[in-house]
Write a structure and sequence with these properties.
The radius of gyration is 22 Å and the shape is elongated. 75% of the residues lie in helices and 2% in strands. With 228 residues, it is mostly helical.
Length: 228
């Protein structure tokens, strides 16, 4: 890896950190989340090409995590639904209305969102669930843990595909591939945050500067993309 390539890859890593630090702002935007996952995996693969180890996705592990999440979610949802019926609380019942078939059909992001809703409803009614339905706090904690685990790996198979894609490229091509996702997708999608989250917007484009670390101590070299 040349110094310029290392400088560019460091810019990718710095930008990835900026994105991750503001995840709550974009994680519910599917296209944005997918692009971020791609640049993160692509950056890791670039480092791997330079001799570092990069993580990989595991579809089987993801499937097991999804199955566990669904089982815990459905169990808790059914108890909350029974409580809602007992109390005539139609709004609560609607929040947790789901079955196995419906859960299986949900996209990963929607499954996580619904499971979080079930967990929230259960937490709000934890006392009644514990005393009348024998739902222990450990069961609610297990659901939260399952949600967090699946949420963290729901893009694993897709990430593996991106990783294989980058792995087939030469190092310069891999850098061009990742840079292209930044320039053509994420840079453009950042426009939505210019007014709604100006600090994130400015921090992102500040990170998108390639710092030329060399003996000459040349000034920073900016990417073509600049804030709109």
């Amino acid at each position: 890896m040349t110094q310029d390539q290392d400088n560019t890859t460091t810019m990718f890593e710095t930008t990835n950190v900026s994105l991750d630090s503001n995840k709550t702002l974009w994680e519910d935007i599917p296209a944005f989340a997918e692009a971020v996952a791609q640049v993160e995996v692509g950056t890791a693969e670039i480092r791997k090409k330079a001799g570092d180890q990069a993580p990989t996705g595991d579809a089987a592990e993801k499937a097991a995590a999804k199955l566990l999440l669904e089982e815990l979610m459905l169990h808790i949802a059914d108890q909350v639904s029974a409580l809602a019926a007992k109390n005539g609380d139609h709004l609560l019942a609607a929040r947790v209305e789901i079955n196995k078939s419906a859960a299986d059909r949900l996209p990963d992001s929607d499954l996580v969102a619904f499971a979080k809703g079930v967990a929230a409803a259960a937490a709000e009614n934890a006392a009644a669930l514990a005393s009348r339905y024998k739902i222990e706090a450990t069961e609610l904690t297990a659901l939260d843990t399952a949600i967090a685990k699946f949420d963290g790996m729901k893009t694993a198979p897709r990430d593996a595909i991106v990783q294989r894609k980058v792995a087939t490229l030469t190092l310069p091509e891999a850098i061009v591939y990742v840079r292209g996702i930044y320039r053509n997708e994420i840079d453009k999608m950042m426009t939505r945050f210019k007014k709604s989250a100006p600090e994130f917007y400015k921090a992102y484009f500040a990170a998108r500067v390639v710092v030329k670390r060399a003996a000459t101590h040349a000034p920073a070299k900016k990417e073509e993309a600049t804030p709109a």
